[in-house]
Amino acid sequence: MATPERIRGRPRERRVDDAIRRATLELLEEVGYRGLSIEAVAARAGVGKPTIYRRFSSKPELVFAHTIHPLELGPAPDTGSLRGDLTALLDIIFDSLLRPAAGTLPGLLDDLAQSPELAERFRARFVEPERRWIRQILERALAR
Which residues on adjacent β-strands are paired with residue 10? Predict the structure, then answer.
């Protein structure tokens, strides 16, 4: 049985998250970024649209989280040296950009350029955690 996680006070089931992720990636491959809709992902995943909207406020957030990096980054790389940590970070970035679904970036970036509100949510949800990762790597290097 799936163990629920606590995100923003709501229990989440891993099987639902996995179904949404699978559906998103399959649909991106079949219809591309422009053809993908929250409704289609919900139908393919066997969940209601509100289930998706509780996790992601928009299609760009849904797509980015499943193609580039997840909502929760986890711990920053810690190899014992600044050079090693930065190399590990670059490897993570490089690997994410080599995924087939990374081809959705042009459409996603276009959506962000069209909506300052969406761009701000995107910064808060994805860019700020990345900055915290880099800050953590640099602070750890200073402490060493």
Answer: 7
